[in-house]
């Protein structure tokens, strides 16, 4: 194995974890670190997580200088946020070329490269992102857990707790009280309120409750899941309407939730309704692979 003179690193920094894929010649390594969300954690904190992984990658691959670094960062949808993260990250790169972009950008690159199409990204948050035949980028959704992120892990976690609270209040019967008690020791409404408002547990951490209830045949949980994925699929339909014939009719979906069988089935059914005639498939390439390809392209 030969280590090249330059090190290229792609980084996928998300709301749950941060992944890096580094390559120098024939040598490569994968690394993982804590979450880095620019809006939630702040630009400096997000940059610190990325910088630590870059340092680890350099150490593992012989200390060779950086040839290019591409960072896809959750919460980096605005120029001002990307600029702040870039400023905090630059001192760690010794003048090497680098780019900080939205995490949807690297996932799109993994799916379609420079071609036209759409990407639905669903993990802790959600977003629909597309590139037209003319190279214009457009998006729908992705406005955070307070204002949007339909169909996301956070949205499904919130939906699970709402179904749970309704059942505890005497509403429609559900398996969620039993599942929540077993998995999270949540047996009363006070327990739920304390977990969310006092302990500040991330809403996305409760997402598995909803999926488990759906798998158990819980119709209230199933209705909540279908409502969430339908909201996300509608955003894909809105984006398709906005772009018209300028967008190639293909969509790849990616992100942590997209690999869950029960979620995937519900999402594909919703996309069939809102994108009739489109080629819809799951992206098998990881977003961090798209980031590494973007990093290598920086070398020219």
Automatic annotation (TrEMBL):
<dbReference type="Pfam" id="PF01869">
    <property type="entry name" value="BcrAD_BadFG"/>
</dbReference>
<dbReference type="InterPro" id="IPR052519">
    <property type="entry name" value="Euk-type_GlcNAc_Kinase"/>
</dbReference>
<dbReference type="InterPro" id="IPR002731">
    <property type="entry name" value="ATPase_BadF"/>
</dbReference>
<dbReference type="InterPro" id="IPR043129">
    <property type="entry name" value="ATPase_NBD"/>
</dbReference>
<protein>
    <recommendedName>
        <fullName>ATPase BadF/BadG/BcrA/BcrD type domain-containing protein</fullName>
    </recommendedName>
</protein>
<feature type="domain" description="ATPase BadF/BadG/BcrA/BcrD type">
    <location>
        <begin position="9"/>
        <end position="292"/>
    </location>
</feature>
């Amino acid at each position: 194995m030969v280590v090249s003179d330059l090190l290229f690193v792609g980084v996928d920094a998300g709301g749950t974890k941060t992944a890096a894929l580094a390559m120098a010649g024939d040598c490569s390594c994968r690394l993982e670190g804590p979450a880095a969300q620019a809006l939630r954690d702040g630009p400096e904190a997000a940059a610190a997580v990325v910088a630590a992984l870059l340092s680890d990658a350099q150490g593992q691959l012989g200390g060779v200088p950086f040839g290019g670094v591409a960072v896809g960062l959750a919460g980096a949808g605005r120029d001002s946020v990307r600029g702040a993260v870039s400023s905090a990250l630059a001192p760690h790169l010794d003048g090497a070329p680098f780019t900080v972009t939205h995490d949807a950008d690297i996932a799109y690159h993994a799916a379609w490269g420079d071609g036209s199409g759409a990407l639905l990204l669903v993990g802790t948050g959600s977003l629909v992102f597309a590139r037209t035949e003319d190279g214009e980028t457009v998006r729908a959704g992705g406005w955070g857990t307070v204002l949007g992120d339909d169909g996301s892990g956070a949205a499904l976690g919130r939906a699970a707790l709402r179904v749970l609270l309704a059942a505890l209040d005497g509403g429609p019967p559900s398996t969620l009280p039993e599942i929540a008690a077993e998995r999270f020791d949540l047996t009363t409404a006070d327990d739920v309120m304390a977990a969310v408002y006092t302990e500040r547990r991330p809403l996305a951490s409760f997402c598995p409750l909803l999926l488990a209830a759906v798998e158990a045949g819980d119709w209230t949980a199933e209705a909540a899941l279908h409502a969430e994925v339908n909201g996300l699929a509608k955003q894909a339909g809105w984006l398709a309407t906005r772009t018209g014939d300028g967008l190639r009719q293909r969509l790849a979906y990616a992100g942590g939730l997209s690999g869950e069988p029960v979620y995937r089935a519900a999402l594909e059914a919703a996309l069939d309704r809102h994108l009739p005639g489109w080629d819809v498939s799951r992206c098998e390439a990881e977003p961090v692979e798209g980031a590494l390809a973007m990093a290598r392209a920086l070398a020219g």
